[in-house]
């Protein structure tokens, strides 16, 4: 995720950069760095750890200059240390770059550059950009950056400066960049809060935009060099609203960040030509005879989706355990067991202790983790990072959907490696996975969100809720109920739909809303049969259907349409609608969704 700040003008750049980075540290706190110049020199200073470490160094050794770029890092490629921190400079120190995002083809580019004599200092994918720009540079920094970006695949927000030019060149694809316009000064940042102390006039750059800023102003083009026009917008948010990106709450902001989070989870890992995924996992997939998935709360439900995916695609027996119970039941573990722990923070104490229990019995261990450098990552044999970025809201949104997407990739990796999934099947699922960011973006279209809001408000004063799903979407029902409980405090239960008649059906009456996930699947017909059982007992059915399914719409009291998706990726798309239903229910009741009572973001006590 990371945070970028850039400045050119009459002020001391160090002050502007540190002020801006302090507003963006929520985007990354693995390391921070600045590059500051004033004609004839650029000095780079960077430190691992939180921004305070860099600030302390700058107090002792302040940097003078009125042009600069700064960065606070959320590590993806390479450990969070001084060397891998941004900015990155070329060997002669003339070109300095900062990059957010992931360069998919960086390994191939790095090998080619090393073959032409380039020497690399860091483990990052980002440093490739500095060398590509250096190769392309012949006096015009803008053209060199444009040429370099033409060679890369992936997501990026990039800012570049050169010792011989009093300008900053920037570009974005997927990773956000906003430009601030002042009087005789210009700014760049990943998010509005970094700039509000200096200007309220902002230009939001679009995907594929390049911009050159100087003391005299700015010019914007596309990646082909064609001029582009973007409106300057006046921002009147207060500081708190700005940190939330103009959204009312962090939770809503993070719901809307999911297309980007999913892109970061998937990008660089999917290979359409072979139907395979590259997860950079060193463990031997042929050595496992069984898998244990261990997690708590939302992560546990992501693990239940993972169980379904892995058993279907890789044909390995999987069991999912609540972490707090795992080590107390004397689990059956051997060296042929793969224990997968799932955690957003990597610090959840129950999951950490379960990990240690599995290792004690000889299991190989893998983590599906968001936070790099966390306690779990230091004890795991291997880690599959989800790259969702920092999540501020207590109720997980983007981390959950990124975890589910990571399990899909893990199931594909295991299936292809073990020969249980053909190249053709793999290619079909890869295509479906690539569609996820677009499908989630579509799920967040204003008319869809408004439809969910209306249903949520209609049932906001219900005392109880029931969620039902089948197959790979039965965990989605559990996750939907959990979200509603967490932030609205309405009692909610969830069941596999076929289980309803074995007891829960006794709860159904005319006052009970029953949310049923009935999107396209092999089990849709059976799910609709379960809906009929609810209707026969006067329950109020909220039916979640795939776009175009008008035939089954008649079975619902209220119908919410969801973008049509491949069954195996549908839990991600459907989870977004569950999040919105819970969110609008809670806000209708006046609840604080970002800080629900009795809950903490990371549970570090047993």
TrEMBL record:
GO molecular-function terms, A-Z: glutamine-fructose-6-phosphate transaminase (isomerizing) activity
Source lineage: Bacteria, Thermotogati, Deinococcota, Deinococci, Deinococcales
Chief localization: cytoplasm
HAMAP family: GlmS
Principal EC category: transferase
Stored Pfam families: GATase_6 (PF13522), SIS (PF01380)
UniProt keyword Cytoplasm, yes or no: yes
Gene: glmS
Source organism of the structure: Deinococcus arenicola
Functional summary from the UniProt entry: Catalyzes the first step in hexosamine metabolism, converting fructose-6P into glucosamine-6P using glutamine as a nitrogen source.
Active site: 2, 601
Protein name in UniProt: Glutamine--fructose-6-phosphate aminotransferase [isomerizing]
Subcellular locations according to the entry: Cytoplasm
Stored InterPro entries: GATase_2_dom (IPR017932), GFAT (IPR005855), GFAT_N (IPR047084), GlmS/AgaS_SIS (IPR035466), GlmS/FrlB_SIS (IPR035490), Ntn_hydrolases_N (IPR029055), SIS_dom (IPR001347), SIS_dom_sf (IPR046348)
Location of the SIS domain: 279-420, 455-596
NCBIfam families the UniProt entry points to: glmS, PRK00331.1
Residues covered by the Glutamine amidotransferase type-2 domain: 2-216
Reactions it catalyzes: D-fructose 6-phosphate + L-glutamine = D-glucosamine 6-phosphate + L-glutamate
Quaternary structure note: Homodimer.
Keywords: Aminotransferase, Cytoplasm, Glutamine amidotransferase, Repeat, Transferase
EC code: 2.6.1.16
